Protein 1
Amino acid sequence: MTLSRRSLLAGAAVLAASARARAAAEVEVVVIGAGAAGLAAAAAIRRGGHGVVVLEARTRLGGRAFTETALGAGRSFDAGAQYVHWAERNPWREIVRASGVRTSGDATGPWPVLIKDGVRASEDERRQRRAGFGRVSGLLDHPAGPDRSVAQAVAGEDEAVRGAATGLTRLTLGEEPDRVSSADYDQLWSGDDIWVDGYGALVARHYAELPLRLGTPVTGIDWRGPGVAVETPGGTLRAACAIVTVPVGVLAAGSVRFTPDLPASTAAAVAGLGMGAYTKIGLALDPAKAKDLRDAVILTSGTPGFTAYLEMRPFDRPLAVLHCGGDGARALCEAGEAAAVAAAGDHLASVFGAGIRGAVSGGRLAAWWTDPFSRGSYSIARPGRLAAREALRIPLVERVFFAGEAAAGGGAMTVGGATLDGERAARAVLARLGS
């Protein structure tokens, strides 16, 4: 490429502005959000030899990768991410191996027992459901024509296929099929999955040495320049650049005020990405009373608007974890922990009988949908808004950069994707700083 005098002058102006911003800054780079994207970005900035600090609203790090321990010793479970997806290209595969934590491969086992309204489904019903999932997979594999919702993609199919599509989106994306872009679903990466015992705890340990300010929610970002001013309840922090990694649910809620307002293109990108409501409810079990429930995975459905599956004794712990998504999960989050735990107990009893209630000693709700620092489980591209993920990557005047699973393209909705996108944003910032 031939450099013109104009391009040289423009480059010099950028470097000069960067130098002024750095001279006025208290820290070179501020990262907002201590989830996987923010932590990966901060680690990369630090490796590049620049000053960085991570501001996190919660009093812990890891974001939506979180290992819940409130049910007591020996009953921890991952309330958020639990799989290293598409492990062949996921950076966490080697981190997991080096850490020595327990894992389990996602090998295909027997089709889960299907319970419909408390009644065990017949073999014919199970066969129809399997066939329905196969048909949905074929319909969503490289769909032709304009982008449309998953519900529209299966609209002409029979009840088994439509039901399978609903189960698919609720239990993998946490959303109803009419709100999911079929083209976005198709672009998500696939591959081997590794189930990690304590994924959230591993993320927290891996990045524990970074400069963190926990319990520090960001309320505003002033990007009028030449640097950025980041507002918190404890005061304003000035930096040359900011990397914003809060979930799109938080951006959409307006919890962080931008001055000036976000450009129309960025606001449109945020609006094109909703948040799913994938939810888990952990139930602590009496080991003696639940010893015969080992390794049982039960799929439950039939309640209008509700699809769930029951994970029994994960990693041989005395636990039952109910997974659900979509509007039924939203209702449980909004009802609160006590009501959600009671509902999970009802589902457990519908499978194993009323006697199992005596084995439950407590419960915990992972209410991502009502969590003010997430506003949902992970990003969902709305039908017709496939380009929103890529559009979210465009920075504001090369000073404010966005990163996270929502901008991770095929890696969206995963810790691995968030990590890769955080590193992508860090490279852009390092280039801005002249590294």
Protein 2
Amino acid sequence: MAVTGVGLMTPAGVGTEETWQRICSGRPVAADDPELAAAPVTLSCRVTGFDPRTHLDGPRPWRHDRFTQFALAAAGEAVRDAALDPHGWDGARVAVVLGSAAGGVGSYEEQHHKLSTVGQGAVSPLTLPAFLPNMAAGQLAIDLGIHGPVLHTATACASGATALATAAMLLDSDACDIAVAGGSDAMVTPLCATAFARAGALARRGDDPAGASRPFDTDRDGFVLGEGAGVLVLERAADATARRAPVRALLAGHGSTTDAHHAVAPRPDGRWLRDAVEQALARAGAARGDVDHVNAHGTGTPLNDRTEAAVLRELFGSNGPAVTSAKGVIGHTMGAAGAVEAALTVLTVQRQTVPPTANFHTPDAGTSDIDVVCGAARPCSVELAVSNSCGFGGHNVVLAFAPAATARGG
């Protein structure tokens, strides 16, 4: 499938180019968050500089939860980037697939607080359209006049990647000609921060926010909670060529598996993550040795990084592809992560540059045999790249991307 448009709304920047430049700089955005003052961990990676009144078209954007606002802004950029005009397309042949781990959890928390402290009369009549997880996809369809399949995917932190794989399957099955797909989440809330902290998942370097998120480093102790959205426009390669669309890269393959092991911990031997990688490569018509780059899930938690590194070592050997994790810069954007990182992988393939992994200094015994890019962005020939995503519940989703000039992909 051809990737003809990219849209990003992340803690690294408002828009694709600003995000890419900050990711390539390797400068973390994590900071102490006053809105989390009552939570056990007060660090977050928030999207700053975003004003829905100026970054969104249409009336009354305040009606939407923040996760929907992010999705609409990222999708708008992606559609413009693809040189598509929603006023001129056949909406019945356009699909939307958006993933989210939690939907409008911020709106839910706010309205529940009003119910508990003030009473029924204080609860907004817009509560349900704000927090229901499908509403980002539904609102995007309303705004752009889309009448094809409109779906929400929920595979925790793999949700955005699942959305992209689902969109590719819709295109393969001729259910649509254009798919606007990705993920969005805004889980930087007191309840979510407290829950993740209680589960032992969050980094706790309160005295060093910028150094808190440390993917693959020996001193890693968890992730930093983030937010944002990533959206791609996908089309069949032949259709993109026929309309002379700008093609950034090809989604050449995808794979999805489930550990069926534990609610929140990865299966230690990484068996099913490995199988997801192999599925993606098989669909791309590629071999292990063809992979030049891995955009890792790389959360900075002890278990995830150890397991993922072992899988990469098993698949590619000790002299394997260049590996990076964007979470060192932008934290963990939850259900948006798979789509945000897919977009960054597209840019890596297009620009032949692998961004660095922020805060990676010293590997441990479990992460020492993979080539983690650090310090500075690395110019590199990337003919095939994979982006890994994993989620609570044991979900594993892998996307494979190739340059637009290659024959791989559909």
Protein 3
Amino acid sequence: MNTVGWVILFFIVADYWVHLLADGLNLKAMTDTIPPAFETIYDPGNYRQSQDYLRTQTRFGRTVATADLMVLLVFWLGGGFAMLDGWTQGLGWGPLATGLVYIGAVVGMKTLFDQPFSIYATFVIEERFGFNRSTPATWIKDRLKGLGLAIALGGPLLLGILAFFQYAGDTAWLWCWLLVTLFGLAVQFVAPAWIMPLFNRFEPLEEGPLKSSIMDYARSIGFSLDNVQVMDGSRRSAKSNAFFTGFGRHRRIVLFDTLIDSHTTDELVAVLAHEMGHCKLRHILKMMTAGILQTGVLLYLMSLVIGSPQLSAAFYVPEPATHSGLIFFGLLYAPVDFLLGLASQSISRRHEYAADRFAATTTGHPRSLIDALKKLSVHNLSNLSPHPWYVFLNYSHPPVLARIAALEEIGNA
């Protein structure tokens, strides 16, 4: 193995141990004492269940991470990338077809390897804690639909990237950046109407006090909203959530049906006020712009090394090629992606605080959002006392107790 290979190996193993350490600290941060803010809604039995859920998820996550690392190392150090490259090159097809087969094989093998873990997580862990509502038939259909979308959408995108890097010379990264950006924007527009309904049923929120309250609030802040959609999240999980998706006339605010069943009208308005706050404060636009810029940086750096003999040699592949270079660069880029991810999550946490403030001040009822956050945390068995290092590495949202404290300051102001 050459120097490039040792550098990549070091960062892959370091990333594994950094997250393993964070897992251990997170478990040690658990306390048997229910936080005062939750004493009135969390009984000791359910609180112990939430801690058991965290332990189970952490142990399972460690198992998956260890298995992923071991398989990658065995495949890499055992010459798997080189053997796969030799097989695909031996087909005698052109560079684009060869690239599609090579990358498709790598992704396909990884996907097949992941399925037993997904089955265990859904039908053992989530079932044990009362969350799973998915049937084996639904699970299989979801995977087949996901595979179909990956082929139908990801295939042409990958083909375009391979073609530009193969034939466009020094400007390939610019053309790829344009292609990926347009593709991402197009998916954002069509996903609410065409893609998401493949997996879930969306119905307009029925007429009544809840819809009237939501629409009145939206008008009060100048938020254009034709309707609120209710998603049948209960088909797959008992967990609750709400989210915002799409742009312009295609944007949707979506409530899980499980959320409606367990919250008051004021709490639901507060939750949606938070989601509308992300839009009004331009968080979605800012994060999308940052993502586009990050993609441009990634593609430029890729263009510098994708044909490097040293990078190919690090994986025991004798001749550099565009398709293998894409895979190898993904592993080389991991440390940069890790650091950018930390920055992105830090910004996201600040955005969550800002959206909370927006909801609290525009509704005039911080307590409603506090109550909603408490109920969501209890219902989803969320960890109430995560370790700060774990939060720094993994959380896109602030811990719920920190959010509640910030909202209480607003209410006391």
